[in-house]
Amino acid sequence: MRKDYQKAFINDLAEIAALRECRGDSTRRAKGVKIERFRFIPGDAGLLCIDIDMGHEDGGNGLSSFYAFFAQAGLALPHYLQNIQAGSFPCYTKTPSGGFHLHFKYKGTKRYILVESFAHAPTLPAIIENSLSPYQDEKSCVVKPHFTYERPDWQKTPPPLSMIAQWAYEDGNFDGRNRLCFEIARRAARPDYGYTATEVEDFLRSYPQTAGHKQIKDAVKSAFKGRKL
Which residues, 6 or more positions from 170, have their beta carbon under 8 angstroms from its beta carbon? Predict the structure, then answer.
């Protein structure tokens, strides 16, 4: 079975087209059957793929989260990542829902190799089985994410603005860039953090999710207005 599985992989675009048109591959396999789904394994090609979801029913924006990750870490974006939607990335797959599969060269991918077969797998020893936790229905133990804006006791310095921005973004209490600016500034305005309105304005002008917004100054001013000194 493993040999048949390996033979099923092809790297010829003409054969893929033939399989999609019911003509079968070069050995006449699948002739008369329309193949519409193909599996691509990036690791076999020395690649690592980052899947950025867009346009799904949950309304998530993977691209915004991807950029927020770099902003939180305080890292500058490489030129090929600065405008993915406009085609800045040199090698990607566009998904039907509007997402992206970004392909990177990567040498660290290694295969897991099955020795023998699953039929030869032994029974789990009782001492291990008895130490396992009883199964719980996933629905009965759903934990709602909670984001805290308080500093842990061990943290002696204020969190960076990139982290504060990530908290506000993940909290999702905004419906546009103006509100997001306000939410970030509101959190950054804590007196014990020590940030000034000017520092927050400068940060928001470079933050990917708010850069270019024309009302940053007003949003920050409104947030800092209610700060208790």
Answer: 145, 147
What the block records as the tokens of 191 is: 């007196």
The residue behind tokens 């992206």 is 100
107-131 confidence digits (pLDDT tens): 777 766 767 776 777 777 776 677 6
In Å, the largest CA–CA distance within the chain is 78
Query: CB-hemisphere CA count at 13 Å for 222?
Result: 12
pLDDT digits (tens, 9 = 90+) for 80-98: 888 898 888 889 888 888 8
Q: Which pTM value belongs to this model? A: 0.44
